[in-house]
Amino acid sequence: MILLLRSRWTKSTIIAMVTAITATFSDADPVIAAEPIRVMSFNIRYGTANDGVNRWENRRTALIETVTRFNPDLLGTQETLAFQRDYLLQQLSGFQTVAAGRDDGKESGEMAALFYRKERFEAIEFGHFWLSETPDQIGSKGWDAALPRIATWVKLRDRKAPDARPILFLNTHFDHKGRKARAESASLIRAKLQEIGAECRWIVTGDFNADPKDVTYANLFAQSDASSRLLTDTLRVVQPTPQSNEGTFSGFDAKQTGGPRIDWIGCSDHFIVQAAEIVRDAMDGRTPSDHFPVTSVIRPK
Asked: Can you tell me the distance from the alpha carbon of 41 to that of 151, in angstroms, rounded to the nearest whole number?
């Protein structure tokens, strides 16, 4: 066939065709590959805990090294006190933070502090709500929860794709005792995603204190009806079959990999999940926190 074409087409004809094709592609809109977003969720353990050899001053450097090795664009932290938030902001160059203490909405109490890379993202709007029947009431405790619990969120414009939908990045920490509180908190988060971020792409990080077999997980990730937007568990995309070593509470022991996977990263179907992992960093058998951090790399569609 090649010989036949060569015999029928003159050299000038071929040159004209190549020129026309080149001009067509030159005039077309460029196709630019979307930049992936690196997401990390990390319960850093509150810094005033009486943890002996694992106290904050002894592990904070290792914790920063763990975060830096992954190099996140978005970082959601839990159990973060104000001085820990400030330390992370000082040590992790190039980040901005949104945080509020769960007790007073300011500096008092643990925070679900989130961090975003300033070079990549511009904050459009941010806020907080409490995981309770009265989410706008500062310090409110919901259902059967032992403590007040908070969710912190920020709407971000991606500087690498300024015309794309904003990203609603939400970070939270569910109650450790209240089973009903966890289930209801998951439903509240889903409702707030729709309310605050109806026009946004979603990324959710948190310590949910629940086994994926629990109703809390279903309330967060299950699609209630055909019209509701899907929120995807990123690790389950990469590793569809649950494993026996998916535990994310370490108790500072690197060998403690059993138990439930209580730390999750979720994203809306505007993203393709490229990677997801439970990070097992340790030094001398001790982990930088009593939780293993979890990470995901997601690419906007």
From this structure: 14
